[in-house]
Amino acid sequence: MMWKIYKDDGQDLSFAISCLYYDAINMNEFNQWIEEVIRTTKIEDIPDYIFSLLENQDIYNIYNIIGFVPDGYLDSNKKDALFGIALLRGTKPYDMNVSENYALALLKENPEILKIFHRIFPLISLQQLG
Asked: Can you give the pTM of this predicted structure?
């Protein structure tokens, strides 16, 4: 798989970071994704910051490590749908700014979010949406 983890093409990196910030994944799962990126990418194609992210355990230090904010392609509703993934995984995000029902409804209305999640984190299973 060609990962989009670069400054000029960072959609996968942006999505993974957003999942972390919205509690859809935890830091351990983020690090497992980084390991998968390293395992499946030619060594010469991996930016140094990817290796540095493995050593980081501070969610708020990620952008300092990579040196840029990857272009996000998720609007606010799609980001809030990530809260729905967190809820499906049994996590109640501390700083969730929408209701649980609304987050789950946004996830249902934006099925591409689940598709991207499954592509980037294939080993994480979710309950089916009702």
From this structure: 0.93
